[in-house]
Amino acid sequence: MTIAREDIAAFADGQLTGEREAEVAAAIAADPDLQREVEAHRALRARLAGHFAPIAEEPAPDALAAMLAPRPAEVVDLAAAREQREMKRSLPRWSWVAGPAIAAALALALFLPRGGAPEGYADTQLAAVLDSQLVAEQAADSDTRVLLSFRDRDGDFCRAFSRDAGSGIACRDAHGWKLEARGDGARQADTDYRMASASNAEILARAQAMADGPALDAEAEARARADGWR
């Protein structure tokens, strides 16, 4: 029986039931590789839940609260509602990112930097951080924080990061750290505050869609740095 990555994520999150849950549980019990995937998924979920827990306890911004406020009942087009349900079922499952943070996440845009680095690549300062800074060793008050590291489907190492100037994802190629995506920074102006954590959630969701397997653990990340992220 084939076990898809979505099945592993759903099982690890306790979302499977009935016969399907029993089938997946039996397959995992018989396969050490699947067991390690489940453990890695649960460990990453716990780490992200701890990262976003303070956000879930804060009151929602006024603009978001207004969007979520109940609205007067309206006539429902049953055919349109059925079509929307089918579209939702076809979307990929991103259960490993904290739910409250995704609900507040800002739209993701392509990162097109300008400056000393070649267009589309990390600047010198950011590249230095991506080259050297490990998730497990970075200071809590670092100006630029690496959220996680992973391999994409082409086998390249990629790192999700967060900083005031803008969070994002950069992947290592022959020319340097190519910037693949970004979210809004922690603070755009004194009168225009945006939660960095909301943008980070969207970045982490994008990273999960790009990744070929779970995020690197501390040992694998240190080994990748020693090899020059190649």
Largest sheet: 4 strands, antiparallel
Radius of gyration: 20 Å
Total number of domains? 2
Task: Provide the structure class.
Answer: alpha+beta
Please provide the count of β strands. Answer: 6
**Which percent bin holds the helix content?**
40-55%
Strand proportion, as a percent range, falls in 5-15%
How do the strands line up in the largest sheet? 1-2-3-4
Distance between the termini: 34 Å
Number of helices: 9
Mean pLDDT: 75
Question: Uncertain segments of ≥5 residues (pLDDT<50)?
Answer: 90-115, 186-197
Tell the overall outline: globular
In N-to-C order, the SSE pattern is HHHHHHHEEEEEEHH
Structure notes:
The chain is an alpha+beta fold and 230 residues long. The chain folds into two domains: 1-60; 105-226, no CATH class. It has helices at 5-12, 18-29, 32-57, 62-68, 78-90, 99-104, 124-132, 196-210, 218-226, and strands spanning 144-151, 157-163, 168-173, 176-182, 187-189, 192-193. The strands form two sheets. It has a four-stranded antiparallel sheet, with helices on both faces. A two-stranded antiparallel ribbon has the order 5-6. Strand 5 (187-189) and strand 6 (192-193) form a beta hairpin. The longest helix has 26 residues, at 32-57. The model is unreliable at 90-115 and 186-197 (pLDDT under 50). Keywords: Membrane, Transmembrane, Transmembrane helix. It comes from Qipengyuania mesophila. The chain crosses the membrane at residues 94-112.
